[in-house]
């Protein structure tokens, strides 16, 4: 996908993931949130992102990280602190969207998460993320998954 064909929401997710990644690397320090947000808003590509979506998902993850981890950790084959920061960040972001943003179809959430992992993560990280989110969707969006 060329950089010019990315949707405003995709850009918002990319920027939010970068912020979540930085936050994880910082040890999830509450005081870092504003600095991370300010840095991302200063990026040239921020103007092309859906700002409201970015804000909703970034702070949704920041504010709800512990609960989000509780939702996806049963489907992870290792302790959460052993996940790569990219996989951890993508799982937080996608879990937030699956649990809180029901207007986004679950297949879109999973596809976006896989694409983000392919773009920013390790070689096969997307397979792991896809597997976790497929199982999580069965829990969080059972009726929607059953319809599909």
Description:
It contains 7 helices and no strands. By secondary structure, the protein is mainly α. The model has no long low-confidence stretch (mean pLDDT 94). The protein has a single domain (3-147), classed as N-utilizing Substance Protein B Homolog, Chain A (Orthogonal Bundle). The chain has helices at residues 8-25, 32-41, 51-72, 85-100, 106-120, 125-140, 142-147. Helices cover 70% and strands 0% of the residues. 35% of the residues are buried.
Strand percentage = under 5%
| Global outline | globular
CATH H-level superfamily title:
NusB-like
Order of helices and strands: HHHHHHH
Total number of distinct structural domains: 1
- Tell me the CATH architecture: Orthogonal Bundle
Enumerate how many helices there are, as a single number. 7
The main pleated sheet reads as: none
> Helix/strand-derived class?
mainly alpha
What would the average pLDDT be, to the nearest integer? Answer: 94
Helix content: 55-70%
Low-confidence segments = none
Tell me the number of strands.
Answer: 0
CATH fold naming: N-utilizing Substance Protein B Homolog, Chain A
Compute the CA-based radius of gyration.
Answer: 14 Å
CATH top level assignment? Mainly Alpha
Distance between the termini: 26 Å
